[in-house]
């Protein structure tokens, strides 16, 4: 992360304060703090005003902050970080109402007294985070490339007769050996009828032959997440099952074609959804098409039929239609993409043709 880009983030945040009429924003969510300041510790708060850039941490993190946090006045908190922050607040101060508890809010109000008004202002940093800068895109790209390697590795390891849990654990161990901090979310391995549950957690059941297995995984690398789903065959499939695979693949490719800056996210969802519905499986695609990915596995923008978000260049989103046939099988195919002015760059490189792994 270049120093310039990080300072630029705080400047961009400051430029958003005018519209809600804020004099400053109190940032306490650890992910937002990391994004703005580079600080990866667990105890810190920042105050960003039009001119002010203050970062406060306690004695345990002073050295770490010195190394990581640039462009902010670094303050060693006395004991209560909120108290130290409160001394630096004046006017109308936004706070993250999605992440600050009622109790913390009451305490903060007590500390700042009458002169400061606390205004709910959740989502401002998240809005910035939705548009990635080049360093962030590179970090996600590397995490996505590692996920490709995990799928290659899986093909060499086999599926039939191993339990879902064993496979999931082994894939996560492989990521760590390759240098990932870990999976970006708990790995999903779901065979046969279990694959009909979109958020299935791996069971101690052996994987059968002649069915489909959904594998949904991501790597956490340098703080950034990847997310990719592939559905494998474990032997020859019934025609109907293979047909559903081809349908989901066609819907996924059509949706990718529709991704572009300036397009409503809901319109991209509709492209995949209408193809699946026209084939008679509309009721079997029960989740949104995708979501933003970055420091967190689910972040802005939302890509679903109810989303109000419009895609912007620099968004990193998933495109992941699925069809779930209750009691029988499921198919999901998911790529991670960067939205560009004239389309998208697909970061997931592993093949989407149906691969048989026995
Ligand atoms: Zn996924
Ligand atoms: Zn996803």
Note the main attributes of this structure.
single chain, 358 residues, alpha+beta, binds zinc ion
What does this structure look like?
By secondary structure, the chain is of the alpha+beta class. It has ten helices and 19 strands. The protein has helices at 3-15, 30-37, 62-68, 81-86, 102-112, 124-129, 134-157, 164-177, 239-258, 265-278; strands at residues 24-27, 44-49, 53-57, 73-76, 91-95, 116-120, 182-183, 188-191, 212-217, 219-221, 224-225, 228-233, 290-292, 299-303, 316-319, 322-325, 329-332, 335-340, 343-346. The strands form six sheets. It has a six-stranded mixed beta sheet. The protein has a three-stranded antiparallel beta sheet with strand order 7-10-11. Strand 10 (219-221) and strand 11 (224-225) form a beta hairpin. Helix 7 (134-157) crosses helix 8 and helix 9 packs antiparallel against helix 10 (265-278). The longest helix is centred in the middle third of the chain and has 24 residues, at 134-157. The radius of gyration is 23 Å and the shape is elongated. Bound molecules: zinc ion (2 copies). One zinc ion (ZN) is lined by residues 216, 227, 229, 334.
């Amino acid at each position: 992360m270049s120093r310039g880009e990080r300072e630029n983030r705080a400047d961009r945040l400051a430029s958003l304060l005018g519209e809600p009429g804020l004099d400053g924003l109190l940032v306490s969510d650890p992910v937002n703090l990391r994004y703005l300041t580079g600080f990866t510790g667990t105890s810190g708060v920042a105050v960003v005003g039009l001119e002010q850039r203050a970062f406060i941490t306690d004695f345990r993190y002073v050295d770490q902050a010195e190394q990581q946090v640039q462009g902010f006045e670094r303050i060693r908190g006395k004991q209560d970080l909120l108290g130290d922050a409160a001394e630096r607040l004046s006017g109308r101060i936004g706070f993250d109402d999605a992440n600050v508890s009622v109790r913390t809010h009451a305490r903060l109000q007590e500390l700042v007294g009458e002169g400061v008004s606390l205004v709910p202002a959740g989502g401002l940093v998240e809005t910035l985070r939705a548009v990635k800068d080049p360093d962030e895109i590179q970090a996600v790209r590397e995490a996505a490339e590692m996920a490709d390697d995990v799928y290659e590795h899986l093909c060499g390891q086999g599926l039939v007769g191993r339990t879902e849990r064993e496979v999931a654990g082994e894939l996560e161990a492989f990521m760590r050996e390759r240098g990932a901090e870990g999976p970006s979310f708990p790995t999903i391995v779901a065979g046969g009828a279990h694959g009909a549950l979109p958020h299935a957690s791996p069971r101690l059941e052996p994987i059968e032959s002649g069915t489909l297995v959904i594998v949904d995984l991501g790597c956490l690398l340098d703080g950034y997440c990847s997310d990719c789903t592939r559905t494998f065959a474990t032997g020859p499939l019934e025609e109907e099952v293979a047909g559903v695979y081809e349908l989901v693949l066609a819907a996924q490719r059509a949706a990718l074609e529709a991704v572009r800056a300036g397009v409503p996210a809901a319109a991209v969802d509709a492209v995949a959804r209408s193809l699946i519905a026209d084939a008679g499986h509309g009721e079997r695609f029960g989740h949104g098409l995708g979501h933003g990915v970055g420091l967190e596995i689910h972040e802005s923008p939302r890509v679903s039929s109810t989303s109000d978000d419009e895609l912007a260049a620099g968004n990193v989103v998933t495109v992941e239609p699925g069809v779930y046939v209750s009691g029988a099988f499921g198919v999901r195919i998911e790529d991670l993409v960067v939205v560009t002015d004239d389309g998208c760059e697909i970061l997931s490189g592993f093949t989407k043709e149906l691969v048989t792994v026995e």
